[in-house]
Amino acid sequence: MVRRLLSCIAACLMLHMPVSPAARAQTAASAQGESQSFDVQQLDALLAPIALYPDTLLMQVLMATTFPLQVVEAARWLDDSSHKDLKGDALTKALEPLTWDPSVKSLVPFPQVVAQMNGNLDWMQQVGYAFASQQQDVMNSIQRLRRQAQSNGKLQSTPQQMVQTQPAADGQSTVIIAPAQADTVYVPTYNPNEVYGTWPYPSYPPTYLPPPVGYVPGTALLSGLAFGAGVAITAGLWGWASPNWGRGDVNVNVNRWNNLNANRQRINSDVWQASNRPGGLPPSLRRAPATGPVGRPARGAGLPANAIGRPNVGLPGNLVNRPNPPNLGNFSGGSRPNLSPGSRPNVTPRRDIAAPGAGARPGLQQRPQAGAFAGQRGDFGGGGRSAFQRQQGGGGAFGGVREGQRAQQFGQRGMQSRQFSGGAQRGGGGGVQRGGGGGRGRR
Description:
This protein is mainly alpha-helical. It has a domain of 186 residues. The chain contains 15 helices and eight strands.
């Protein structure tokens, strides 16, 4: 008893213990972040402008979106005239002392990509939040978009890139995009409205990121994918990350990551995780961005019937409006099977049932009148008389005259009992007299 009382007191003290505003805000932010997620339509709209990038470059972009402030710093670093001409090993050496994430460092050789991300901060923050909290959903969305562009005839192998299709475990195809040349990467630019064809989500149109200033595509955007000048691969910054489409995450080379990740937290896992950073998740990834191309997370789930990357599923009319089963369309006797005595298997027809009379429902036998079964079965019906009184001739319900007499005797005893009990109730104190006082005498 004392122990229980002490437990109750301790619980009350914990309930009334003050909580710091910072801890309360962090808990609320974490709960909000965990409960919010983008739905399929929002993810497809967000990823439409980059889903057709080569796999390795795309993984670098996705990881870098989780560091939006570092991307802004990289854009400013590239604007410095002393950094514009750095390439190869010289560029890798110049980036070594910087504390940026390896994904941000690996985008520096692609100034047009950095400028595009820096010029669309609200989009970059939404993509970063989605990739940090819904990595597998993001990877699935990219494959849906690639299949849609491929079926629309806009994604195919070119001199700049190589497109391959491999079967996946879920029955869908996995579309892989790689540079056509081992030492050069071409960044595609395209209009999602043209490349993906008819967009099925009116509420969330595809995001379009126009080419940054100074980046001139080699072909017209209206014809599909456009490629500018190729970018020479910097060996120290390229090829350390690759997508694992079947698992829905990103593989990283741990040793190369740690070499690029100078003066920062080292990793041991070869699978990229948003938590692999100093201090855990930054505030920008703990809660969904307030603004962006697709608004707040819709918290939806499931794949719409008209989702990007798969054909619309048309149901036959007989599955949408299913007809009534045969012979069960209504409840008239003529359409219900096995109601006629002759059609029911293993059931002997009852010859004593009267034929249907006027106004009877077709297909159903007329109900027998009271007492119709008295001659063959022990039913108690018929014309106000007991069925036992009509069975004096033998073959009745109780086997002839003797049984009929016994039945009459049982009936008379029952009537006497009822009269006796009725008199007791109405006699008013006499118990055996009816009418109380001057009524009839004992019967």
